[in-house]
């Protein structure tokens, strides 16, 4: 990917992430269990979509967007804030690398080596699961290393994992319902 | 003036977007399909494939599929589940034809794949 497009895609991912995360926090502040942990976190589904569409640029966009959205935490505890921001983007990217394997079938679609694309419904569900595990683990590791006062780490892990997985699945199914609803208005004839 | 060729990054992005849409559409759902709905959908699909889509009125009098009230209910169950839609007949918009949606075509394709695998 050329540098120009990498920057463009990173910028697009950052803007989309910031807009969605801000809207989510305005509408769903009441599902926040403790600061940074939500019982249902729809933006995790968006993280998956951004990484699938923009690959590394998408992951970087999430990191930058999370830094922008978490400036309060970064001022208070810069190491922890930056670590959590990196985890937010890197966890989904790493999960995608693990879950989505290049297909051996001949295809016009670009494969994982050139940007994550060889994806189907099964890998979407697996990606939601794997990225939720990695994201929650990464956040807990951040608290463990950079926040001596953090307690109940196992409860934080369980809550964040549930929130991420539930949020991602709900968002993906909401998008599926929207796509099918739009398609119903067009009846194909062969 | 020769139009500029689209950038390969944008083509890749578009292809990834299409793949994502397909992946989302194929997400597993709760089994709404019963044997009775499956039979009715097969009748609708066969007629549509032969380029003779069935009108709602004609479907309602197919006794082997059930009573008119039952068939009516099942047609709407299929419609709510996204497997069929209605369209007006060319030349007579009063006649409502029942046609399979893209979701139904994917459902048929999945069945065909399973049959092919079983036959191997």
Quick recap:
The complex is a heterodimer of chains A (190) and B (120). Chain A has 190 residues and is mostly helical.
Distinctive features:
heterodimer; A: about 190 residues; mainly alpha; two-stranded antiparallel ribbon; 7 helices; about 70% helix; B: about 120 residues; alpha+beta; Arc Repressor Mutant, subunit A; 5 helices; 3 strands; about 60% helix
Structure description:
- The complex is a heterodimer of chains A (190) and B (120).
- Chain A has 190 residues and is mostly helical.
- Chain A has one domain.
- Chain A has 7 helices and 2 strands; from the N terminus they run αββαααααα.
- The longest helix of chain A is centred in the last third of the chain and has 32 residues.
- Chain A is globular and about 55 Å long.
- About 5% of the residues of chain A have low confidence.
- The mean pLDDT of chain B is 84.
- In chain B, a hairpin with a 2-residue loop joins strand 2 and strand 3.
- Chain B has one domain: Winged helix-like DNA-binding domain superfamily/Winged helix DNA-binding domain (Arc Repressor Mutant, subunit A).
- At the A-B interface, helix 2, helix 6 and helix 7 of A face helix 1 and helix 5 of B.
Helical fraction of chain A: over 70%
- State the helix count of chain B: 5
Biggest beta sheet attributes of chain A: 2 strands, antiparallel
Number of helices of chain A: 7
Distance between the termini of chain B: 54 Å
Write down the Rg of chain B: 19 Å
Helix content of chain B: 55-70%
Arithmetic mean of pLDDT of chain B: 84
The CATH architecture of chain B can be named as: Orthogonal Bundle
**Strand adjacency order, main sheet of chain A:** 1-2
Rg measurement of chain A, Å: 17 Å
Number of domains of chain A: 1
Structural classification of chain B: alpha+beta
Number of β-strand runs of chain A: 2
Give unreliable regions of chain A as ranges: 106-115
User: pLDDT average of chain A, as an integer?
Assistant: 84
Query: Which secondary-structure class do the elements of chain A indicate?
Result: mainly alpha
Shape of chain B: extended
Terminal CA distance of chain A reads: 37 Å
The total strand number of chain B stands at 3
């Amino acid at each position: 990917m050329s540098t120009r497009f990498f920057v463009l895609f990173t910028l697009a991912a950052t803007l989309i992430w910031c807009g969605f995360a801000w809207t989510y926090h305005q509408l769903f502040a009441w599902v926040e269990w403790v600061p940074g942990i939500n019982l249902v976190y729809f933006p995790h589904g968006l993280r998956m979509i951004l990484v699938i569409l923009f690959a590394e640029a998408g992951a970087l966009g999430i990191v930058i967007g999370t830094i922008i959205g978490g400036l309060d935490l970064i001022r208070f505890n810069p190491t922890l804030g930056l670590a959590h921001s990196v985890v937010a983007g890197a966890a989904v990217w790493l999960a995608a690398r693990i879950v989505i394997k290049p297909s051996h079938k001949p295809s016009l679609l670009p494969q994982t080596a050139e940007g994550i694309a060889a994806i189907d419904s099964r890998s979407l569900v697996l990606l939601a699961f794997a990225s939720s595990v990695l994201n929650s683990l990464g956040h807990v590791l951040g608290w463990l290393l950079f926040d001596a006062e953090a307690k109940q780490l196992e409860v934080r892990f369980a809550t964040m994992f549930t929130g991420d997985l539930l949020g991602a699945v709900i968002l993906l199914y909401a998008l599926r319902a929207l796509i099918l609803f739009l398609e119903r208005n067009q009846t194909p004839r062969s | 003036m020769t139009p500029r060729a689209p950038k390969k990054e944008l083509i890749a992005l578009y292809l990834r977007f299409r793949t994502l849409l397909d992946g989302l559409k194929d997400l597993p759902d709760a089994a709404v399909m019963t044997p009775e709905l499956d039979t009715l959908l097969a009748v609708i699909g066969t007629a549509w494939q032969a380029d003779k889509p069935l009108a709602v009125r004609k479907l309602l009098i197919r006794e082997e599929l059930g009573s008119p009230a039952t068939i009516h209910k099942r047609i709407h169950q299929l419609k709510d589940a996204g497997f069929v839609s209605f369209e007006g007949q060319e030349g007579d918009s009063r006649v409502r034809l029942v046609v399979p949606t893209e979701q139904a075509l994917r459902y048929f394709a999945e069945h065909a794949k399973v049959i092919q695998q079983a036959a191997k």
